[in-house]
Amino acid sequence: MPISVFLLDDHEIVRRGIAQLLESEEDIQVIGEAGTAAQALARVPALRPDVAILDVRLPDGEGVSVCRDIRAALDPPPACLMLTSYSDDEALFGAIMAGAAGYLLKQVGGGDLVGAVRTVAAGGSLLDPKATAVVLERLRKGDEPEDPRYASLSPQERRILGLVADGLTNRQIGAELFLAEKTVKNYVSSLLHKLGFSRRTEAAVYAAERRRSGSAG
């Protein structure tokens, strides 16, 4: 039986390129794709792929959250390969915590991506042992209870909170994270709601206090 793969990326040309690359291999079959987190969450349970290749940054959410949700919903769960354009420690931490089997930059060569699909489909892991060790160390140091408000934030919301604390406007944050200004505004509204604040300045002060106290994130 060929390895069945599902693709999640908000750029159609990227999905087409990956699909063409994988379909050229006799032992790999692309059985579905999506451009948003919502589409993926609706389609993956019905398709039950062996491997899910998930973009980390999506217009309506986080690939890490999709990884966690589909792994929790399916038995056996698919092996999830996180694919991103940027090296990001927080996203890597989130991917490991969500149970991802691998974390690759989009600059990866075609042959390496094919090999990665085969590796995780066979039960292997492509996570750097050093990165995994850092995550485990962070967990060991987490003796103090995490602020449940902060814990409720997605990795993207945490990134945006940090940039709010740095004094960036929504437009500047959008330029930094390659997001539309309206999307940033929605993220800010969401994180303010989760933190229980009504004003942006309150969130900035909160984030600055976390930094001073040395809290993770």
TrEMBL record:
<keyword id="KW-0805">Transcription regulation</keyword>
<dbReference type="InterPro" id="IPR058245">
    <property type="entry name" value="NreC/VraR/RcsB-like_REC"/>
</dbReference>
<keyword id="KW-0238">DNA-binding</keyword>
<dbReference type="GO" id="GO:0006355">
    <property type="term" value="P:regulation of DNA-templated transcription"/>
</dbReference>
<feature type="domain" description="Response regulatory">
    <location>
        <begin position="4"/>
        <end position="121"/>
    </location>
</feature>
<protein>
    <submittedName>
        <fullName>DNA-binding response regulator</fullName>
    </submittedName>
</protein>
<dbReference type="InterPro" id="IPR001789">
    <property type="entry name" value="Sig_transdc_resp-reg_receiver"/>
</dbReference>
<dbReference type="InterPro" id="IPR039420">
    <property type="entry name" value="WalR-like"/>
</dbReference>
<feature type="domain" description="HTH luxR-type">
    <location>
        <begin position="146"/>
        <end position="211"/>
    </location>
</feature>
<keyword id="KW-0804">Transcription</keyword>
<dbReference type="Pfam" id="PF00196">
    <property type="entry name" value="GerE"/>
</dbReference>
<dbReference type="InterPro" id="IPR000792">
    <property type="entry name" value="Tscrpt_reg_LuxR_C"/>
</dbReference>
<dbReference type="InterPro" id="IPR016032">
    <property type="entry name" value="Sig_transdc_resp-reg_C-effctor"/>
</dbReference>
<feature type="modified residue" description="4-aspartylphosphate">
    <location>
        <position position="55"/>
    </location>
</feature>
<dbReference type="InterPro" id="IPR011006">
    <property type="entry name" value="CheY-like_superfamily"/>
</dbReference>
<dbReference type="GO" id="GO:0003677">
    <property type="term" value="F:DNA binding"/>
</dbReference>
<dbReference type="Pfam" id="PF00072">
    <property type="entry name" value="Response_reg"/>
</dbReference>
<keyword id="KW-0597">Phosphoprotein</keyword>
<dbReference type="GO" id="GO:0000160">
    <property type="term" value="P:phosphorelay signal transduction system"/>
</dbReference>
